Amino acid sequence: MSDFLFGHVGSDLFREFDRLQHHMSTLAGGFPASLRSNQSYFPPVNIGATDDAIEIVVFAPGFASSQFELSIDKGLLTIAGERKRPEAATGEGARSYARERFMGAFRRVIELPPNANPDDVKAKYTDGCLLIRVGKHESSKPRSITVL
């Protein structure tokens, strides 16, 4: 029975999950694929939009604002930084039995939509969250049109 459940079906099951994820990605239109978050990356991000801006929340507790490096080039927002191991955990004879907190350098690159304005970016780090607001070009903002 276990060969039936986990043998040849196991690899087909993963292929089916990949196929399902691909279909879900195509249904999630509106944002480029790189704007949709992926749980396997650090730090995790939430991305949304208002009429005026694209808003990105980066969940990275335990950092100082000076530890982040942000840049925009050719429609790509790059978020980089590094979390160093606490000195107490690196002392002589110290051994770890489990580590669930991410340590080391990270780099996230997010493709911004074409209506993002790279000249209108604000970033603020508060309560363990890096809040990034990228304004939209005026021409892409919704507006009311008067009918005469």
Question: How are the secondary structure elements laid out?
Answer:
Elements: H1 2-6, H2 8-27, E1 45-49, E2 53-59, E3 68-73, E4 76-83, E5 104-111, E6 116-126, E7 129-136
Antiparallel strand pairs: 1-2, 2-7, 3-4, 4-5, 6-7
Q: Give the strand content.
A: 35-45%
Oligomer: single chain
Termini Cα gap: 74 Å
Radius of gyration: 21 Å
Averaged pLDDT, please? Answer: 77
Number of domains: 2
In helices, the fraction of residues equals 10-25%
Structural class: alpha+beta
Can you describe what's shown?
Helices cover 17% and strands 36% of the residues. The protein has helices at 2-6, 8-27, and strands spanning 45-49, 53-59, 68-73, 76-83, 104-111, 116-126, 129-136. The protein folds into two domains: 1-30; 31-140, Sandwich (Immunoglobulin-like). The longest helix has 20 residues, at 8-27. Strand 3 (68-73) and strand 4 form a beta hairpin. It is built from two helices and seven strands. The strands form two sheets. It has a four-stranded antiparallel sheet with strand order 1-2-7-6, with no helix packed on it. A three-stranded antiparallel sheet has the order 3-4-5, with no helix packed on it. The protein starts with a helix and ends in a 12-residue tail after the last strand.
What attributes characterize this protein structure?
4-stranded antiparallel beta sheet; 3-stranded antiparallel beta sheet; 17% helix; single chain; extended; 2 helices; alpha+beta; 148 residues; disordered N terminus; Immunoglobulin-like; 2 domains; 7 strands
